[in-house]
Design goal:
The complex is a heterodimer. By secondary structure, chain A is α+β, with helices and mostly antiparallel strands. Chain A folds into 2 domains: 207 residues, Metalloenzyme, LuxS/M16 peptidase-like (Cytochrome Bc1 Complex, Chain A, domain 1); 175 residues, 2-Layer Sandwich (Cytochrome Bc1 Complex, Chain A, domain 1). Helices cover 45% and strands 21% of the residues of chain A. In chain A, helix 1 crosses helix 4, helix 1 crosses helix 7 and helix 3 crosses helix 8. The longest helix of chain A is centred in the N-terminal third of the chain and has 17 residues. The radius of gyration of chain A is 23 Å and the shape is globular. By secondary structure, chain B is of the alpha+beta class. In chain B, strand 5 and strand 6 form a beta hairpin. In chain B, 46% of the residues are buried. Classes of the chains: A alpha+beta, B alpha+beta.
Chain lengths: 411, 428
């Protein structure tokens, strides 16, 4: 349980994280659990009445997300409710919200001990639609296909929402069984940010959640990925107007490592910002793209590059990006590029505390990685990174996969 | 400098209109590390025919406001992003139908960043060469949106609803229209719409209002701006009927995306009435079609809608339309069901309990929005440009009666003023 007391916000923000190792056998059923849980609780089994309860709490925000961090599949429930002092609420809103979340997660609507058939079938359909819809957003689709190709031999290839082929065979019995396993074996972390105290939240949670017996679980370190022997180039065709060029790189550095701050600098100088090499060289100098950027997944140690380009410019854009990687390895970046990037990372780390959601996400990094590092500490470490340390990250970073989504016509 | 306190939302703003006409508002936020500032002009994609102070009318190519936004970031010394980065600020800009907004967010060197923001927006630098170079970048931005199904279905609907009003024009224009943009057309738009009297500066964060205001006063006093006459915008009268009742596009999507919209033809409203009508319509739509409504659940249970089903209402002085829909396996069945459910609601009226619950929900989500400096700056400016005040919304929500919402329910849905936009993988 993590409580971050503050008077900055007009709300209480609540997040509950539940993590299990990513595994082919369980990924789809685990992903389906929150979809079914949000349909109703033991006390309010009908969905419409459940939604009305949320509306009555001054439209409490309620949602969930399923994603991957390192080799874990995380289900996150979020609630956001107004601090009572702004409204004339007839019930204490934080207490009622925790009660509702506790019901959702630990006291769902069951019939004869199983999830309701109607909810399971409807949400199987919703999950299937979500998986099918990934292709609708070509930017996201290309990014996920690149990871899937790159991590073909690892659990990380799996989509956080699972696999379509597994959905049909899920039954209320199999899902209820997986739910119970999930409840007793997943790592659960509850966060509350707002004008409250740990003591108050502890007392509210004790009565709101039916917490199962047993040792609380934790997270294990992400598996060390293999080294690259040859760059894998994948070209896929579809009816698109714009080509999507994606690259996947293995940095061999994760959040828990001492050189993580240097990896942040590496990514920032390469493509994290509009002053970065990718934006300047692919967009501003060559006019090849509207977006050209890189992103670091610190829990998996993967850096990805993404850009939308004219289909005929594939070779040209790839060559420019490779040149930027080469200049990173050679340590070709100015004092200005380093100081600008440090200033941008510092700004981001200082801004965290202005958003309850960001505060929670940052703190959860230490739970996931097992490395406790406050934002202030990371900021100091980032300021102290030397050019040689950045080049060292660049030199051990390996380009693994080049993925290109292009038009449907065969050349 | 005038001080305005809003006890209901526990916020206080400081406001001043400078001698050159620039309006400045500062909102101090205790305990916040960051400062977020937006510098906005009342100039967007719909402003394509205009005249200043009795001069000759000018027509400009579609997409020019957005093009201008891109070009502002270039200075003779290079890209302004680099300057912001050196000062630890993250900067950006966006263009909508009726405004262009430049912004930064920073936790340090606030004064330097604020000066940079004001100065770069007030110093255009267009050359034949840099204008040509930008065309390649914006063409890729246009191509990116052409592949975006949500964007296509949304703008397809507006295009189906409106025949003349420039709201139906794509904000970024087309490859062809931006091909016609020159540095001369950019300068004439710039000089018209970036005059301080047409602009608004909003600063929110952990700042001292008097210090910030003094910085802006000094900055502006050091610059020369000739007084400018009133900007007149020309918009052809919009015919009552929709352009086309049905517009389709083909893209590789898993399920058809469908949006229904209803166009309203009405006399222009004063800002207070406009706001009240908008709020009443939004409450009506959410009570009727929101995620707690019986219609929503019936359609979800029958697999005709997914979580993506939603609704919105957009209105300004000279246009008003709703947008309803999401993805569905069967657009025709969805429309038939919606129509009968709406007609039933029109006959019976909304449930009072559901209406009151929706009100609470809307007030709650409004207060939640006030946690975010970005959202406050964006919404404050949006409301300011239409003569309303973001911080006075709670009483407006509270004042709307069930009768008003029911009146909107009966007025809004005219079936002959409806258009449908569909994006699907099948040919039309």
């Amino acid at each position: 349980m993590h409580v971050l007391p503050t008077e900055r916000f007009k709300t209480f923000s609540i997040s509950l994280f539940a993590g299990l190792p990513l595994a082919e056998e369980t990924v789809t059923e685990t992903a389906l659990i929150p979809f079914v849980l949000r349909r109703g609780t033991e006390k309010t089994p009908e969905t419409i009445a459940f939604r009305e309860r949320l509306d009555d709490l001054y439209g409490a925000g309620f949602g969930f997300d399923v994603y991957k961090r390192g080799d874990a599949q995380i289900v996150q429930f979020r609630m956001d409710v107004i601090n009572d002092k702004f409204v004339s609420a007839d019930q204490p809103l934080l207490a009622e919200s925790l009660k509702l979340l506790g019901e959702v997660v630990t006291a769902p609507a069951l019939e004869n001990g199983l999830f309701r058939d109607k909810y399971v079938e409807a949400e199987k359909d919703t999950l299937n639609k979500r998986l099918e819809a990934i292709v609708n957003d070509k930017i996201r689709y290309a990014a996920e296909r690149c990871i899937e190709e790159m991590c073909a031999g690892e659990p990380y290839r799996l989509h956080a929402l699972g696999q379509r082929a597994d959905i049909a065979s899920i039954t209320p019995a199999s899902l209820t069984e997986q739910y119970q396993r999930w409840l007793s074996t997943a790592a659960f972390d509850l966060y509350v940010v707002g004008d409250t105290t740990l003591a108050e939240v502890e007392q509210l949670v004790a009565s709101a959640f039916r917490i199962p017996q047993g040792e609380p679980a934790g997270y294990s370190k992400s598996s060390d990925p293999r080294h690259v022997s040859e760059v894998n180039t994948v070209i896929e065709r579809m009816e698109v107007n714009q080509g999507k060029l994606n690259m996947g790189l293995r940095t061999h550095t994760t959040y828990a490592d001492d050189d993580y701050p240097a990896a942040l600098l590496f990514n920032g100088i390469l493509g994290g910002y509009p002053h970065s090499k990718l934006f300047l060289n692919v967009r501003e100098k060559a006019s090849l793209a509207y977006y050209a950027a890189s992103r670091l997944d610190g829990h998996k140690g993967i850096c990805t590059i993404q850009s939308g380009i004219e289909i005929g410019n594939f070779e040209k854009a790839t060559a420019i990006i490779q040149e930027q990687l080469e200049s990173m390895r050679a340590g070709n970046y100015s004092e200005l590029e380093t100081s600008q990037t440090k200033a941008m990372i510092a700004n981001h780390l200082r801004e965290l505390q202005d958003s309850a959601g960001e505060m929670i996400a940052y703190d959860f990094n230490s739970v996931l990685s097992g490395r406790d590092r406050s934002a202030e500490e990371l900021l100091r470490q980032v300021q102290a990174v030397t050019n040689e340390q950045i080049a060292a990250v660049a030199r051990k970073t390996e380009l693994d996969t080049i993925y290109f989504l292009r038009d449907g016509k065969e050349a | 400098m005038e001080k305005l306190a809003y006890p209901g939302v526990q916020e206080t703003i400081y406001r001043e209109v400078l001698p050159n006409g620039l309006e400045v508002v500062v909102l101090p936020k205790d305990g916040f590390s960051k400062t977020y500032a937006t510098f906005s002009t009342r100039y967007g994609s719909i402003d394509n025919r205009f005249a200043v102070g009795g001069e000759q009318q000018i027509s400009v190519p579609d997409g020019i406001a957005h093009f201008l936004e891109h070009k502002m970031f270039e200075e003779p010394t290079g890209d302004i992003f680099a300057t912001f980065a050196s000062q630890g600020a993250s900067a950006n800009a966006y263009t909508t139908f009726d405004r262009t907004v430049y912004l930064f967010s920073a936790t340090e060197q606030i004064e330097a960043n604020l000066e940079t923001l004001i100065n770069f927006v007030q110093s255009p630098y267009f050359t034949d060469e840099n204008v040509e170079k930008e065309k390649g970048i914006i063409e890729q931005e246009i191509n990116m949106y052409r592949d975006n199904a949500d964007w296509r279905v949304y703008f397809g609907l507006i295009d189906a609803l409106y025949q003349k009003h420039p709201i139906h024009i794509d904000i970024a224009g087309t490859a062809e229209s931006i091909g016609k943009i020159t540095k001369e057309t950019l300068y004439s738009c710039y000089e018209t719409f970036y005059h301080p009297s047409n602009m608004f500066l909003f600063i929110v964060g952990g700042v001292d209002p008097e210090k910030v205001m003094e910085l802006v006063r000094r900055n502006q006093a050091a610059k020369q701006f000739e007084a400018q006459g009133e900007i007149k915008r020309f918009i052809d009268a919009e015919p009552e009927a929709v352009r086309t009742p049905r517009k389709t596009a083909q893209l590789p999507v898993s399920l058809p995306k469908v949006l229904f919209g209803f166009k309203e033809n009405r006399a222009p409203l004063a800002s207070e009435a406009l706001l009240r009508t908008e709020v009443a319509t939004k409450l009506m739509l959410d009570t009727l079609l929101g995620s707690s409504s019986p219609i929503y659940h019936a359609l979800y249970d029958d697999n005709l809608i997914s979580d993506s089903f939603g609704h919105e209402f957009n209105s300004a002085e000279d246009y008003a339309f709703s947008v309803i829909g999401g993805e569905t396996k069967d657009p025709e069945a969805l429309l038939t069901r919606l129509r009968s459910a709406i007609e039933e609601a029109q006959a019976n009226g909304l449930s009072e309990a559901a209406f009151e619950r929706t009100k609470r929900k809307k007030i709650g989500s409004y207060l939640r929005l006030l946690n975010s400096p970005e959202a406050i700056a964006g919404e404050f400016t949006r409301y300011r440009f239409r003569g309303a005040d973001l911080f006075k919304l709670v009483p407006v929500y509270e004042a709307i009666t069930l009768d008003e919402a029911n009146a909107r329910l009966r007025e809004h849905f005219s079936w002959d003023l409806m258009a449908v936009s569909i994006v699907s993988k099948d040919p039309a």
